[in-house]
Specification:
Layout: E1 9-12, E2 29-30, E3 33-34, H1 35-46, E4 51-55, H2 61-65, E5 72-75, H3 83-92, E6 100-105, H4 113-121, E7 131-135, E8 141-148, H5 152-155, H6 165-170, E9 175-179, H7 192-202
Parallel strand pairs: 1-4, 1-6, 4-5, 7-9
Antiparallel strand pairs: 2-3, 6-8, 7-8
Helix pairs in contact: 1-4
């Protein structure tokens, strides 16, 4: 049985897959469905809260890949300026009563619903912790990351493609690292060679 949590998830899926030689990494099939749909389904199963998917402007095939799912598709008109545009707009779209939010990357296919729930279970709003971050089994920081609402205003001024590193840095001393199995927290697939190696390892 899944131990669902209640706060929102932002799924970052507005990147341009520049290193994929014309292919879209978020439309690559994982267990018979596009990766972006698989990631959105995991998010939807893990939380009863809202799931906001940051996407490139329409028209784009990623919207069709999400058809029928109970998620909010959020077009990011300035997505080509970097990941921080998606973070800025997605955090601004959160429910006003959100106590925290999980930020999930679209290109980590090995992450499981159980990993999202494990990270969420670590959240203790009675503590002074402001960031809960998934790591590899060996402790290397990765994703997902949960941000407390005390940090939400910091996202409003983000620019570029830092992925919110400044916000994590501002919480120094108040960051909890949560180990997830294997390399799931950092196993992003950015190139055709990455995908080929990943599929070969699964055979």
């Amino acid at each position: 049985m899944i131990d669902r949590f209640t706060f929102p998830i932002i799924l970052l899926a507005a990147g341009q897959s520049r290193r994929m030689q014309g292919r879209d990494k978020l439309l690559e099939e994982v267990d018979g469905i596009p990766l972006i749909r698989a990631q959105a389904q995991k998010a939807r199963i893990a939380t009863s809260g809202s799931v906001i998917v940051a996407l490139p402007p329409r028209p784009h095939a990623r919207y069709e890949a999400l058809d029928g799912l109970d998620v909010t598709c959020l077009p990011v008109p300035d997505a080509d300026t970097g990941m921080n545009a998606s973070l800025r707009r997605s955090v601004a779209a959160l429910p006003k009563d959100a106590t925290c939010v999980m930020v999930l990357l679209g290109d980590l296919p090995d992450l499981q619903v159980s990993d999202l729930c494990k990270l969420a279970r670590a959240v203790d709003l009675r503590s002074d912790t402001e960031v809960w971050r998934g790591t590899t089994a060996q402790g290397a920081p990765g994703h997902p990351i949960i941000f407390r609402n005390t940090l939400f205003d910091a996202f409003a001024i983000l620019k570029g493609d830092s992925g919110g590193r400044e916000v994590v840095a501002s919480a120094q001393g108040h960051v909890a690292l949560i180990p997830l199995p294997d390399n799931r927290a950092r196993g992003d697939l950015d190139t055709p060679e990455d995908w080929a190696a990943w599929r070969k390892a699964r055979d």
